[in-house]
Design goal:
By secondary structure, the chain is an alpha/beta fold. It folds into two domains: 167 residues, Rossmann fold; 161 residues, Rossmann fold, CATH 3.40.50.2000. 36% of the residues lie in helices and 18% in strands.
């Protein structure tokens, strides 16, 4: 799949603090999938990180400000047309500063700052960014980040993330039953799923309440991020199944589930503004019950099996839609391939 001329001289360097060829967390997944998608488009692409590695990813240890002769030499030697910086900490002051320092390593490239989480900045930090730390472009899934960029006089665009529609896809009813049997579930179980960090900030008590009311409640937690062990113990005692190790075929858990639950409080700083796990669940054509989290309502309406509920009504809503059958959530994201995201980035920047 490629809309890019094979002889194109475009080069893209992707930098993120953590990159892995086995990501199980939203920002790392985004960075790695964008890396793969640019390569699929026939563009010469290099992935560089401070931690992680695998599958041709270049790991260069550096300090907090990315001051490193080796990193400088890699960037200058590669001569990227676009340097896409996807910061793990989100749109912090220091992330803006790092984007400017990356620009100093090759002034000819266009530095695209692509934070997935907004952060509250002080007036002083905003002034410093405006004076000294402006990237060439700011692209984000967050309207708050885009609004901040506009207020600082930066070129900016809001885009949605993508999803691997070949990996995350619906299966037949017969395949679903076989998959459930293989993982120890029955045909009649009402299986509700959440994928994300094992953190007290994610309102995961909802999954415990669902388990107590008869649902088979599953949480797939990131293996590469901090785990709240006290929360894990509470969830297990409440009857929730918690998997906190890397799962190679995570799509199978989406495929065997009935409903995907996203319980994070709408105003929380936890989670990226368009949660990648929701897109993966939609690609598998699951019912979605979510809080009106951040930018989700801007991109997705209540339709085709996608439901919103305020946190206090989430449990009741999940149980209310148990027998809802007119689900077609995959149709809502069928154009959101990672390659499409990369083409959008090229169109915005070049």
């Amino acid at each position: 799949m490629s809309n890019i001329d094979e002889n194109s001289t475009i080069k893209v360097l992707i930098y993120s603090e953590f990159l892995s060829d086995k990501p199980d967390e939203g920002i790392a997944k985004t960075a790695y999938n964008i890396y793969k998608a640019f390569k699929n488009l026939g563009i010469k692409t290099l992935a560089v990180c401070r931690e992680g590695g695998g599958n041709d990813i270049v790991v260069i240890p550096s300090n907090r400000l990315l001051l490193s002769y080796k990193l400088r030499n890699i960037i200058k030697g590669f001569k990227p047309t676009i340097l896409l910086y996807i910061p793990k900490p989100g749109a912090t002051f220091y992330s803006f500063l790092r984007s400017k320092l990356l620009k100093l390593y090759d002034r000819k490239c266009k530095v695209v700052f692509f934070p997935l989480q907004h952060r509250v900045l002080s007036r002083f930090h905003k002034l410093l960014i405006k004076l000294f730390a402006k990237p060439d472009y700011v692209i984000s899934t967050s309207r708050y980040v885009v609004g901040l960029a506009k207020s600082l006089g930066l070129s900016t665009s809001q885009i949605c993330l993508g999803v691997d529609l070949n990996k995350f896809k619906p299966i037949s009813y017969e395949q679903k039953i076989r998959l459930r049997n293989r993982h120890g579930f029955s045909e009649k179980d009402y299986i509700v799923l959440h994928v994300g960090h094992l953190s007290k900030h994610r309102n995961l008590e909802v999954m415990a309440k669902l388990a107590k009311r008869g649902a088979k409640s599953i949480i797939i937690a990131s293996s590469s991020s901090h785990k709240d062990l006290e929360l894990k113990e509470y969830l297990l005692k409440s009857g929730v199944m918690v998997f906190d190790h890397f799962i190679e075929r995570i799509e199978e858990f989406y495929q065997l589930a009935d409903c995907y639950v996203f319980p994070v409080q709408p105003g929380s700083e936890s989670g990226i503004s368009i949660p990648l796990s929701i897109l993966e669940a939609m690609a598998c054509n699951l019912k979605i019950v979510s809080t009106p989290f951040k930018d989700l309502p801007l991109f997705f309406k209540e339709e085709m099996g996608f439901f919103y509920a305020n946190p206090e009504h989430l449990v009741d809503k999940v149980l209310e839609v148990k027998d809802y059958r007119h689900v077609d959530t995959r149709r809502l994201i069928e154009k959101l391939r990672w390659e499409t995201v990369c083409e959008q980035i090229l169109k915005i920047v070049l």
